[in-house]
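Much of our argument rests on the idea that a fold can be written as discrete symbols. Part of our work consisted of pairing the sequence of a single chain with a tokenised description of its backbone. We regard such an encoding as a compact summary of how the chain folds. The amino acid sequence and the backbone structure tokens for this protein are reproduced below.
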Amino acid sequence: MTLILVADNDWAIGRNGDLLARLPADMKRFREITTGHTVVMGRKTYESFTKRPLPDRVNCVISRTEKTIEGAEVFGSIEEFLEYAKDIKDEIFVIGGGEIYRQMLPYCDKAYITRVYESFGGDTFFTDIDALPEWEAVEASDIIETNGYNIRFINYVRKDAP
């Protein structure tokens, strides 16, 4: 599985249940990478999308409260989703939120992270993957500007991945 997210200088990924900033270049990259694949997220992340379900993707939602969500496969726990995921031959993208990222990190072997060189005062954070010895950055774009922010796309792999 692959994580895909945006993090600021402090590894914040959200504030007040929303994105930190609107980043058109990141949104385009997210669409290009995840279209045609399975995406897994928490209920609040799913509900935050203006267009639901995300088009041209299998939408999987992990929720302790909802049993059915129109346009999505619903799972009551990470373990339930992992059992379902065993039969998926294609790439699966973990797309948030914070608790889902935290719980799914041990099951992922790649991460596509957009770093925003800004501090937004977020209230939801991701682990500083640069500080984790089992992860390494293998590719990084040049810094680009989008919507007034400097960003860089960085791809990581788990060193012990098969």
